[in-house]
Amino acid sequence: MADISNDRTSLINVVKALGEYLTSEESELLQKVLTSMGKPFLDGYTTLADGEKDPRNLMIAFAIARVILIEFDISQHTETMFNILFCYFPITFRPPPNDRYGITTDDLRTSLRRCLGATPAFGPLAIPVFLEKLTAGSRATKKDTLQTMAFCFPVYGSALGRAHARKLWNALKLEIFQPVDLQTEEEALRATQVLVKTIYADEEAAVESNDDVHGLARDACEECIQILKEPEKNQANAAIKILCSFISTTPSVSRYTISQAVPHLVKLFHNPDEAPTRVATLTLLAELLLAARDSQVKSRTSEAEPAVLHYKDEVLGVFTVGLQSTTLRVAALPGLKAMASTDRLLTDEELGFIVHRVGGVIESDLDGFEEASETILDLLTTISDRAPRHIFEQTLPLLFKSLPDKAPSREATAEREKCWQVLSALQTLCIQQELFENLVIRLTTKLDLICLPSHGSNGTIKDLELDAAFAHMILKTLAQTLLTKVKAGHPDVPKYVDQLLPRIFDIFISSAVLSTEQPMIATNSRLLNVAAEIITLVLQSLPPSRQQSYSMGLSKAIMDGDTTDIAQDFQKKSSARKLDFFGSSTMNERNLLALLAAAVIPLHKEVHLPIGDLDGFLDTLLAFVTEKADTDLQRLSALHMLSSILNRRADELSSFLQDKLNNFWDREVSDRSVSVQRRKSAIQAWTWISKALLVRKHPLAMNFAERLFDVFGDETIGWDAARAMGDIPAHDSVLNKANHAEIKILYVQKYVNTILPRLIQLARDANSPAERTAALVALTSVIKSIPRAAYIHEMPSLMPSFCYGALICPMPDIRCSVIDTFLAAAEGETPEKNMVSEHSSTLVNAMLRNIRAEKMASTKVRISALRYLGGLPSIVRYDILHPYKPTVLRELAKTLDDPKRSVRKAAVDARTNWFKYKG
Amino acid sequence: MPAEIFNPNPVVFSTSKSGKKPDLPPHSVWISDDPESGENDADEVVEAIDQEEIFDLIRSIYDPEHPNTLEELRVVSAPQITIGQNHVKVEFTPTVPHCGMSTLIVHSTRLSTSPSVFFCVGLLTFEYDALLPGLCIRVRLLRSLPERFKVDIFVKPGSHQSENAVNKQLNDKERVAAALENPVLLDTVEQCLVNAGARGNPV
Questions:
Q1: Among A410, A486, A839, B155, which is most buried by a count of CB atoms within 10 Å?
Q2: Once rounded to an integer, what is the mean pLDDT over residues A604-627?
């Protein structure tokens, strides 16, 4: 059999070579000769190709057939060619499971399609076949047929299309009004669209008015309008889809469709009898406008007036009426957005009018605003791209006015929510340059008021936490808006180094200094964190030269505690006391290091912070971390600073690094006489040094990381070292591309290749139980912080340790990350090919132990376990797992009564999957 | 699909969005820094099952006749659900007040050879249009609610011509169990439940 097939292949290859030669340009003469002998050649060929079944040969045969159909005169052979080709339609071939040749069903479909649509001569014969396959076929056949129709109609031509329009439309509309699935519906719409385009394309010039549109477009439109008389019904959606698809066919059909549909819907909206259907009417109208807008963009007729311009006033009227009513608002807003985003449709005044009306809605009815806030903001953002002035003049004052100067009281939950809602709205709205500038001015003023009460105010004891939370909201708004702008690459971010940062520094430095006299709110570490975020974001966007000049003032602040250059007005507000971070300072003052570190983090490599003796400075930082720092914030800030500098300038620091490897480790970490806290801080410092080296693939990076193995057996700090192992390769917000850190590719792989095998071995045959548990902790921690691709090849050897971890490990966060690792590893697994089948019974039992609230207090662990349990049926074969089905269903039934809603949700989903699990 | 659809063009309603988690957690004056970690991991607060949660379970069940969900067709709605200590009552509104899917089931069950089929056809009379959505709700809640709940499912008074018969059958354990023995019927129910986990979110 194989030989015969191979023979045929070579035979067909010969013919193919011939065919290729025929079509190449230099063979004009030969082509003439061969085409003149066309008839005998064709006779021979049709006999040869008839009844071919091998997909490889078919691919070639279809390619040849297309050449013949296009290049040869086939008038004598139309029917024969039709028969030998259409007998393959539709292709139902399915490649065998271990297919060697890689020919897919779609390959065959497309190349056959190219034959069927190669000549207009097939048209009259093909249409009945299409209609038959469409009505009788399965989903796949329907889809194939619809795609083939869309491919062939333009080739078969307008005359044929017109002749069969009615029959085709009747078949197509069935697929649209009663679709088997969404995809078929889409294909049917596209086929209809192509048909209309084909029919009307060449008479485009002849059509002068809407009365000249006859035939299919007119009939179909009328039919759809009839259906639209009941806009609330299911089929109205299908009808509007058809009309929308007509809008992007030919200009005349588009014009006609709009002239029919838009006035109809407008009239319907104004009809008092149809009042209950207004929501549906508005939704349909909005869809129509969207289609009109998109077709305008697609056709790129930049000068032509928008298709709906003629009906603008009525439509705008309808939507503004809708906007005023609470029930219609949600449906009206997308329509207004579609109008506002159509080029050259609305004038500047009209946009202003919309903004004015929306402002009225925000002002009058804040509850209504809440419900539609997302869509309202969407509309306003669209307008702010085109006409920011209106938002600036009308909307922003309105929103700022509703922000109080003082934090709402503890009981006023509703007011607090409103504040956050207004701030979130501002966050979405103020992306555009002028609007953002306004936001910065207004919000920093507000911050000043809240954080630095004027000296004259009497010192009544207020609820400081409330004010702090309010200031936190405001800072968060600024940070989020900045983040959006930085991500979008806006060019106006750098200027806020002068307009925003000095004020931020001022507020926090003044607060820290004044906090010795009275309680201040801007000493709160949550506030400091957000402020640090803002500082990093702004400085990230500065070019190196600008960063260099900024770093002068920055180093003065770090080294001498002189903040005059980076903070505004500080001298006016407090006695000009200099700060001494590393010497005598209060805790609040030392916390300010977070802001300074935030400014060091995003410095370019070329920017050298003028800090004198580099080794000495880094040692000062280290000493600060182990001896002086009294909060995590301080420790991390100092380490971030150290890590950023080390990352950029490691080449100058080899003696510093050697000293750490030779002395620091023995002195601070492995010496058991040192206090536990100090040893833990030293490990933290070790982590950040290793991180700085690893990301730039420094030769000493692994020496540092592997040193951690030495203390795995130590009961007091073994787990800290194990966790540090995972923290080293983890992605963080300090050493990354955005902050201009020195990063080389594939550093994670380098790390994993060295560390992972050693950990696996240690987890299997460690000397002491402590070491073994630490290895397990390190494993999960490493795996949590690296991408799936980096460890998936080690998964089989990891499975036993992990099963053990999920069953016995007492720490909830370790269990959680073990289960999360299982979840990540399960992605892409199939019943045929997976790593868990042999462990499935252990896994099921392990998960069942973690899902009951009585036994496992952590919500996160319960949810992860349930998610994994729910995923097992889709990755393990039924015959392996089915003995557990009754037990799992019974156990899950108990979890349905979990005290936490999110756990119940996961339990319901998992249980549903197990119910569906059948052989 | 059935050869004859009894309500080929039903009214489709817009659906409400399912609740988004607020940035401002309850009992706190601080907005959360990280929206992901808003949840307290091991606190003792008990969140009881409420009307909204039960509605979430059944809102995305497909109607047996249409590619729409029960929520879109307003067959079910949150206010139609009442919940007590150990008792849930769900009221639903059939899309048409007369028979519908009956022909499909009777027709297709005849093709099946299982003896239990005829038994079922005898039990479940002609009210499948109302019965089938009800049965889907019943199955979904049976699988998703703790056993301590007694679930009653009723047709909205006055919305169906054989209201009493339907109510009686839907709340009769034996009959429901018998109906689910029928593989064709069970398959239809499974089809309707296929995206029930979407809970009102787009699939």
A1: B155
A2: 90
